[in-house]
UniProtKB/TrEMBL annotation:
<feature type="compositionally biased region" description="Polar residues">
    <location>
        <begin position="38"/>
        <end position="55"/>
    </location>
</feature>
<protein>
    <submittedName>
        <fullName>Uncharacterized protein</fullName>
    </submittedName>
</protein>
<feature type="region of interest" description="Disordered">
    <location>
        <begin position="29"/>
        <end position="61"/>
    </location>
</feature>
């Protein structure tokens, strides 16, 4: 009999590493007097006729195998197990008392046998009907979630994704997201793959036709029809120009929000900051500014605003654009604004020192500035909103620091769904100051398209209820998942289609929804006061409310209070509440004081 119980010396089967966490869904252990598998139990029943040793009914055995099948399929998809390794595991299980299991992983995961790809826009093209995909994704939610949904807000994302470093071939997926149901679900509705980028916009047509039907008829889920609306279409600047049929941002009329004519100053810059003539849906459809358009956009066939529904993407243009630009200017710019190598190292040491103090809600820990060329968008966002104001204080010149703080405070307001409703105008004024002061500090060449687009950020955030409601972050995360499931350069679009067909059969685990529920119940009998000295012991006492959670670790406890960071000396967990004694708190100002 085989043993699949992990040990310290050997955790591999047919070249497949099995970690402890991978075996949470099922147990496959060496038979012992305390643990007998189904086949051995039945064998013993044949030898011992006493009633207490009778084998379980065949229906119970079938239910057990059915659950095992579902757990195995989820495990294969969750950990991207190669099919040859999973086939070997299935063979072992079939020989160990589970003969009803399939012999092939493709049968287990219901892998698509046929990939109906065609040629469109000069690339390989595969399409997944929007209505079918939306229905499948929506029904993956628990019933308690779907019953509360009165409407579905969809966002689209179109962007290029290079799958291999050694090839110029690029994947261009059309991604759709259900944005108003937590957690946000992203799924592809079309994919093109080939050299460079699509030669025309034909690859958009199927998606647009299906969306128009859904906008008119809604989504029929049987007992009711759910209305569908389009929240936004999120793209980076080059992809947005492609799908809208407009000039690139490097053109004289490259801004898709206003009609300002750019100037050539070694590159296209946008010097004006006030009284800008804004584009409208009518002016766009009439192509009243002919120098802005290249061709007709298929999106004009949809009943959406062709200006407002294509937001400035703060992931690409603020985090990867403006914030990265500022850091590179300080590190590699001219001597008037450049900081010394010693100061760069000092900032890096401060960032590394913050690692142990970063809450668990951050996706990444701070890294040294020596790795800035490899920083991800989330790291620039973290620097902009949180760590930058700490590590730059006392190192940057006062005017440069105040200039950075104007961007940081404005961004912090605009990412907050609450603050953006009341303080968006103040954030807008800060961003105008940021652009105008940037011209004085860094020269006219600073006023490139990404910097200019900050002028349009505040009104957009107010319309969508915060920058996170119209950003590329959830889509970018999903695109990286697509990249990871491609295992070779042979027909990658077929590989992707088959992996997606497998994922459709997996229900979203119930535990995913725990952190998104209205409020989780806390043990009413639990009451404890924690002293500051115990914060450093990394206790695992966690209270889950809406979001975020409160953890009794020093790095995970903070209470925002006006313009201060309040670090409580003690917390009391009493009757499902948290009592924070403000009289026993440390207060640290987050605002820069003028010298």
């Amino acid at each position: 009999m085989y043993s699949l119980e992990p040990s310290d010396t050997d955790q591999s089967i047919a070249g497949l590493d099995i970690e402890q966490s991978d075996t949470e869904h099922f147990e496959l252990l060496e038979p012992s007097p305390k643990r007998l598998n189904v086949s051995e139990s039945c064998a013993n029943d044949q030898l011992h006729s006493s009633p207490e040793n009778y084998c379980s009914s065949s229906s119970d055995s079938d239910d057990l195998d059915e659950k095992l099948r579902a757990d195995l399929a989820e495990w294969v998809n969750a950990y991207q197990i190669k099919h040859n390794a999973a086939d070997r595991l299935l063979k072992i299980l079939k020989e160990s008392g589970h003969p009803s299991l399939p012999g092939s992983t493709r049968t287990l995961t219901k892998t698509a046998r046929y990939v109906p790809s065609t040629q469109k826009s000069g690339m390989d093209y595969v399409y997944f009907p929007v209505k079918e995909e939306l229905m499948q994704q929506f029904l993956r939610y628990p019933k308690a979630v779907t019953e509360k949904a009165t409407t579905l807000e969809l966002s689209l994302n179109i962007d290029g994704l290079p799958l291999f470093k050694s090839s110029s071939n690029t994947l261009w997926p059309i991604l759709c997201g259900i944005m108003n149901v937590e957690p946000v679900t992203v799924f592809p509705v079309a994919m093109t793959y080939g050299r460079s980028k699509p030669t025309n916009l034909e690859f958009l047509q199927d998606t647009i036709d299906d969306l128009n039907v859904l906008l008119n008829d809604g989504l029929d889920i049987g007992e009711r029809v759910i209305p569908i609306s389009i929240r936004c279409i999120v793209c980076d600047a080059p992809a947005k120009a492609l799908v809208k049929g407009t000039k690139l941002y490097s053109g004289y009329f490259g801004c898709d929000k206003c009609c300002q004519r750019g100037e050539w100053f070694g590159r296209i810059i946008y010097p004006d900051t006030r009284n800008l003539e804004l584009r409208t849906d009518t002016s766009f459809r009439d192509q009243s500014n002919d120098d802005h358009h290249r061709t007709d956009s298929p999106f004009c066939q949809m009943p959406i605003d062709m200006v407002d529904k294509f937001p400035v993407d703060y992931m690409h243009q603020l985090c990867l654009g403006v914030m990265k630009k500022l850091l590179l200017i300080w590190m590699r710019g001219n001597r008037d604004v450049k900081i010394s190598a010693r100061q760069v190292e000092e900032i890096s040491q401060k960032l590394i020192g913050l690692k142990s103090a970063m809450p668990s809600s951050f996706a990444r820990k701070p890294r040294s500035l020596s790795d800035i060329d490899r920083w991800k968008a989330t790291e620039f966002r973290q620097f902009l909103l949180y760590t930058g104001k700490i590590v730059l204080d006392g190192i940057l010149k006062t005017d440069l620091y105040a200039h950075f703080m104007s961007l940081s405070i404005a961004s912090r307001i605009l990412v907050s769904p609450t603050l953006v409703q009341t303080h968006w105008k103040y954030a807008s004024d800060l961003l105008v100051y940021f652009v105008e002061k940037g011209r004085d500090l860094y020269g006219r060449e600073f006023l490139v398209y990404n910097v200019h687009s900050m002028l349009h950020l505040a009104s957009q955030a107010k319309e969508f209820g915060g920058l996170d409601s119209c950003s590329s972050f959830p889509f970018e995360n999903y695109m990286q998942k697509l990249k990871r499931v491609v295992r070779s350069g042979k027909n990658p679009i077929a590989q992707l289609t088959k992996r997606l067909s497998e994922l459709r059969t997996i229900k979203i685990p119930e535990k995913v929804f725990e952190q998104h529920c209205a409020r989780s119940q806390i043990m009413p009998s639990y009451s404890k006061t924690v002293s500051p000295a115990k914060f450093y012991r990394k206790q695992a006492i966690v209270m889950r409310m809406e979001t975020p959670s409160i953890s009794v670790e020093f790095t995970n406890i903070y209470v925002p209070c006006s313009t201060h960071l309040v670090i409580p000396e003690s917390l009391e967990f009493i009757e499902q509440t948290v009592a924070v004694h403000e009289s026993n708190c440390y207060h640290q100002s987050l605002l820069h004081k003028k010298q």
